[in-house]
Amino acid sequence: MSKTPFVTKEKIDEIVLHYPTPFHIYDEKGMIENVKNLYKAFSWNKGYKEFFAVKANANPFIVKKLMEYGCGCDCSSLTELMLSRAVGATGDDIMFSSNDTPEEEFDFCCKLGGIINLDDITHIAAVERSCGRLPERMSCRFNPGGVFTLSNGIMDNPGDAKYGMTEEQIFESFRIMKEKGVKEFGLHSFLCSNTVSSEYYPILSKILFELAVKLKNELDVKITFINLSGGVGVPYRPEEEKSDIFAIGEGVRKVYEEILVPEGMGDVAIYTELGRYMLAPYGGLVTKVINEKHTHKEYIGVDACAVNLMRPAMYGAYHHVTVLGKENEPETETYDVVGSLCENNDKFAIDRKLPKIEIGDYLFIHDTGAHGFAMGYNYNGKLKSAEILLKEDGSFELIRRAETPKDYFATFDCFAVYNEMIKL
Predict the structure, then answer these.
(1) Phi and psi dihedrals of 186, rounded to 5?
(2) Which of 59, 159, 231, 373 has the fewest beta carbons under 10 Å from its own?
(3) Confidence at 192, pLDDT banded by 50, 70, 90
(4) What is the distance of C-alpha 65 from the center of its chain?
(5) DSSP characters for 143-185?
(6) β partners of residue 397
(7) Contact at 8 Å (CB) between 119 and 141?
(8) What is the DSSP letter of 371?
């Protein structure tokens, strides 16, 4: 199997006349088709809403585009709340799910009218102090502990995660919040990351739906939404299967009708927070080959580095690489594709079979639309790249300019140092 870039070498040749590499590029057409299919898959639920995880891609052009198709914003920090507000999200369009949260961030979310999803029982008092009172609609994040497994061998370890409350704490939190005037409640949980299995959401739904029924019956609370969070993944490797969002939606529907509907809870809205699924396949990092090195291995050096895409260096994540213009050539060579950081883990690919690469070739690094640019940083004084939107009509638009040295020095009190340096 193979992965095909959504952009051609000819289009990249056109773009680089205006914007030099490296840059992240996004596929508007693919992104829009994907969000439409997501809403179709959950159309059986009247209140369904996707709260896009802003941490996955915080470009305001992208967030605003998703909002045009019904998405809200899942935020986890003050600046993500500010960004969401700037693109028009307020009230029920905002889900605030943070942890170890400064109280002023709760206050700002309250002022926006967003939904606060509590990570810890002690945050009830923190919200009350910062906001003056508890909002009438609140949510809590559940962590059942233990190890979570699926039949296909996928495993994750909620018991080792810093997020969420125990079942006992959820019950106590709902009891306290009800006493303090909360009228509508939500549940949230995240137990498994980046799975392309159709099992995950239905299994998670069963856990949360059964907990919701117990909370409703024992505490007489009104649960208005259940947030399945993220976890639905994408096929980073060519041999992996794509998530079937329609099978996933149908699986959740069956569990919903089995557990919630008989309990008179058929009006509960289903929410999701699918940052990776929403955008990862619709972004790519385009980088130019600038060096080759022949020592103990064959190295291809490019003008991007880990500051542009951190995942491979951070935890060995696989990202497929296409040599643009050589898609049909045989993969006869074995390379390490590397950046220029002073760190040996600055490698986009290790022992990767690729066609013969030459200086000046453009590489397309796949699936960077989520957790790509967003995880960038400035180590070694490297500067963040531009972001470009490939529009449905084939045109392209700069949606974030590349950083400059002036940006890098802008936060220093001794900014005059930069002015002196540029005279040299």
Answers:
(1) -130, 160
(2) 159
(3) confident
(4) 15
(5) ---S-EE-TTS-EE-GGG-S--B-HHHHHHHHHHHHHTT--EE
(6) 389
(7) yes
(8) T
Closest listed residue to residue 282, CA positions, set 317, 251, 312, 242: 242
Distances (CA, A) of 270 to 227, 266, 381: 6, 11, 44
Q: How confident is the model at residue 417 (pLDDT cuts 50, 70, 90)?
A: low
Distance CA 305, CA 233 (A): 24
The pLDDT tens digits for 193-235 are 888 889 999 999 999 999 999 999 999 999 999 999 999 999 9
At residue 155, the pLDDT reads 47
Q: Retrieve residue 60's tokens.
A: 């305001």
DSSP letter at 303? S
Contact 286, 363 (CB under 8 A): yes
At 418 the three-state DSSP class reads helix
Q: Which two tokens stand for residue 164?
A: 């969420």
Alpha carbon distance 169, 38 (integer Å): 33
pTM of model > 0.90 = yes
Which of 23, 16, 28, 11 is closest to 282 using CA atoms? 28
Q: What does residue 289 show for φ and ψ, rounded to 5 degrees?
A: -75, 120
Tell me the C-alpha to C-alpha distance, in Å, between residue 414 and each of 293, 405, 423.
39, 14, 16
Task: At 107, list the tokens.
Answer: 């206050």
Separation of alpha carbons 268 and 271, rounded Å: 10
Residues 59 and 399 sit within 8 Å (Cβ to Cβ): yes
